[in-house]
Amino acid sequence: MRQYSADLTPPWKKPQPVPEVPADPGLVVEEPATGFCGAVIRCEAGTVTLEDRFGKHRVFPLEPRGFLLEGRVVTLVRPASGPARPARTASGSVAVPGARARVARAGRLYVEGRHDAELVEKVWGDDLRIEGVVVEYLEGVDDLPSIVADFAPGPDARLGVLVDHLVPGSKEWRIAESVTSEHALVVGHPYIDIWEAVKPASVGIPAWPRVPRGQDWKTGVCAALGWRVAHTGEAWQRILGSVRTYKDLEPELLGRVEELIDFVTAPA
Questions:
Q1: Rounded to two decimals, what is the model's pTM?
Q2: Under 8 Å between Cβ of 46 and 62
Q3: What are the C-alpha distances in Å from 230 to residues 98, 200, 216, 223, 227?
Q4: What is the pLDDT of residue 52?
Q5: What are the residues facing 94 on neighbouring strands?
Q6: Three-state DSSP class for residue 7
Q7: CA distance 89 to 94
Q8: CA-CA-CA-CA torsion sign (197, 203, 204, 205)
Q9: Which stretches does DSSP call E strand in the chain?
Q10: Diameter of the chain by CA atoms?
Q11: Which residue of 50, 99, 126, 161 has the fewest C-beta atoms within 10 A of its own C-beta?
Q12: H/E element holding 173?
């Protein structure tokens, strides 16, 4: 006599299996019931702790089909061994746990300002240490010709420079053109200041304010957003703290920095 299954649920209505993903530190997921999105900072028996871009922590149970990873439903599971390192660096490169910093190359990266240097370090720092690339900052593009002349770039000592708001035909553009050579590359992003290269959504604002010409841009931004105008340094720490990975930055900046790193590290 033929036996029939007691489960009469049609196949298309049955829950589909979902992948199990280890809750490694640094993994960014979303808890769909609350909409809370953050990086894994701790995974203990039966629970996982997430931290969002504002530093807020939430603890959730490790339930089947309980999280979204890049929009896909997954089941988070406790890592098989002890605390694991993120599989990728903040720049999206494959992480190399335990790798030692390479002895500094003769080549250098220059960026326009301390804030630029801090942002590059936060996102590309791991990559740059492995490649042995040192980042320094300019006080202004006007100093670029003398810096390039003193550096004397060559096949084994390439120089890459990132400039803010590099507009064709401008004074800054002409200076950049005058020092660009086979061993010196100057590129620019379209933003007035490096602040603007951070995605507004990552900072928790709808958009970067438009500041009237003639007004200090950073001061105008702070005023428009209701931040303390006299503390632009404090505002920058707030912005920098919202950046976790390359996904928090605009593509126009990402492409330029990656181009410079490739240029400086290319074989002679």
A1: 0.65
A2: yes
A3: 42, 21, 12, 9, 9
A4: 80
A5: 88
A6: coil
A7: 6
A8: negative
A9: 20-22, 28-31, 36-44, 47-51, 57-61, 67-69, 72-77, 108-112, 134-138, 159-163, 184-188
A10: 93
A11: 99
A12: helix 171-179
Which pairs with CB-CB distance under 8 Å and at least 24 residues apart come from 28-31?
28/69, 28/244, 28/245, 29/67, 29/68, 29/69, 29/74, 29/76, 30/67, 30/68, 30/69, 31/58, 31/60, 31/66, 31/67, 31/68
Measured between alpha carbons, how far is residue 190 from residues 24, 79, 174, 210 in Å?
A: 36, 42, 16, 15
Whole-number Cα distances in Å, 160 to 64, 108, 109, 186:
48, 6, 5, 6
User: CA-CA distance, 20 to 66, in Å (whole number)?
Assistant: 11
The DSSP code for 95 is: P
Torsion angle defined by CA atoms of residues 165, 171, 172 and 173, in that order, rounded to the nearest 10 degrees: 90
Distance of alpha carbon 91 from alpha carbon 249, whole angstroms: 10
Bridge partner residues of 74 (DSSP) = 67
Q: How far is 213 from 93, CA to CA, in rounded Å? A: 39
Q: Quick: pLDDT tens for 152-171.
A: 999 989 999 999 888 888 88
- Tell me the C-alpha distance between 150 and 192, whole Å: 28
Summarised one tens digit per residue, pLDDT across range 1-55 is: 445 455 555 554 556 678 999 998 888 899 998 888 888 888 887 889 888 877 7
DSSP state of 140: -
Which residue bears the tokens 């957003």?
225
Q: State residue 263's pLDDT score.
A: 94
What is the per-residue pLDDT across 196-243, written as a single tens digit (0 to 9) for each?
Answer: 999 999 999 999 999 998 899 999 999 999 998 778 889 999 999 999
Among residues 148, 127, 123, the alpha carbon closest in space to that of 138 is found at 148
